[in-house]
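Exercise: predict the fold of this chain.
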Amino acid sequence: MKKTITKKDVAKRTAKLVGEKIYLTEKIVDGVFTTLREFMSEADPEVRIEIRDFGVFEVKTTKPKPKARNPKTGEIIYVPARRKTHFKAGKLLKEVLKQPLE
């Protein structure tokens, strides 16, 4: 079963890591996520947020699909261009994730 880690879990571990009170790190962690969300939602139309030694968050535009098909009805529909999010792991994170499972 997949474990779910919440923003509160991130704040608790950050507080322990930096030796700070949890209520202070909760504010900082919340502020970081709010700022990232703002950067991504303000993307016009694309943006790249690079966090060294962690990874890259990107907002990319998709191409419009003039001949998409509704699989239920078979009807041909038009799907307009939109924006999507993408995350690419950084070098350190990739190396950790490449370790074989035991």
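Check your answer against the key: The chain has a mean pLDDT of 94.
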